[in-house]
Design a protein that fits this description.
The protein is mainly alpha-helical and 87 residues long. It has one domain. The chain is 93% helix and 0% strand. It is rod-shaped. The mean pLDDT is 84.
Length: 87
């Protein structure tokens, strides 16, 4: 019984160590994921004028509205980026 208790303690210690390591990794992955979403939004915004011009030139007006809707959804990203750049 004492051996079982000792093994359980070792398992708990190992679990705590692994959990701590993974917690750091999860935090880094979360930050990278956030940066990736920001970069995707910025890439969309920077390509927007060319994409709008292309769709208008091709007469694909039905494709213009979703582009504008996506732009509106990303306006908070624009404000965030420019507020960080000014400070």
């Amino acid at each position: 019984m004492e051996l079982l208790s000792h093994n359980m303690d070792n398992i708990n210690i190992s679990f705590d160590r692994i959990s701590g390591t993974l917690r750091d990794s999860r935090s880094q992955i979360s930050k990278l994921s956030s940066v990736n979403r920001l970069l995707d939004s910025l890439q969309f915004i920077f390509k927007l004028p060319a994409n709008l011009r292309k769709e208008i030139d091709e007469g694909s007006y039905s494709k213009v509205v979703p582009l504008i809707d996506t732009y509106i959804a990303n306006q908070s990203i624009i404000v965030y980026v420019f507020s960080k750049k000014i400070k």
